[in-house]
Design a protein that fits this description.
Length: 93
């Protein structure tokens, strides 16, 4: 996958504040993805390696943020175990 841009819903400082105030590792990781794309745009594969997520998860997080704004990050969806492993870049069950 190639590069993606994030919508300008929030500034880099606002995203950094969201990261610092986030509760839960998954929410922090989502903000980390958005922050990385905003301040250091590079291929999705590199952002996936840096954040420990699969490329498809990085792509999904960016897409959801672009269409749903910050609320898409704050709302955690329930994932079945297989989806969680894919999100975390691990092996499927």
């Amino acid at each position: 996958m190639s590069r993606m841009n994030v919508a300008s819903h929030l500034s880099a400082d606002e995203i950094r504040m969201k990261m610092q105030m986030s509760t839960g590792f998954m929410r922090f990781q989502k903000w980390l993805v958005i922050y990385n794309v905003l301040v250091d745009p590079r291929p999705i594969s590199e952002i996936a390696k840096h954040t420990g997520l699969s490329e498809s998860s990085v792509y999904r997080i960016i897409s959801e943020y672009n269409s749903g704004g910050p609320d898409s990050i704050e709302t955690l969806k329930r994932m079945n175990p297989q989806a969680w492993f894919e999100h975390a870049g691990g092996l499927s069950v």
